[in-house]
Amino acid sequence: MLKNARKSKRMSQKYLAKRLRITQSYLSKLENKKKYNKNVTIYLVERIAEELDLDSTDVFFYFCRRS
C-alpha cells in the first residue's frame, strides 16, 4: 500500500524519507513489511498519510496487520 502510493505520486524513497525525517532504510522496511514494527508512532502514521494523501486510519491499520 505505501510503496504503491509513493510510486503513484512519483516520489523516491529517499525524497519521502527525508520529508518524514526517517532513514531511507527504515522507510524501505516499513513499505516492504520486512520488519514488523508495532512501535510506529501516531505522528509518523499521520505524516505518512499526509505526504501520500492517504487516510490516516488506513495507514494505521496497515501497520497493525502482520504480513
From TrEMBL:
Native organism: Clostridium argentinense CDC 2741
Pfam family, one: HTH_3
Domain HTH cro/C1-type: 2-59
GO molecular function term, any single one: DNA binding
SMART domains: HTH_XRE
InterPro entries for this protein: Cro/C1-type_HTH, Lambda_DNA-bd_dom_sf
Protein name: Helix-turn-helix family protein
Superkingdom: Bacteria
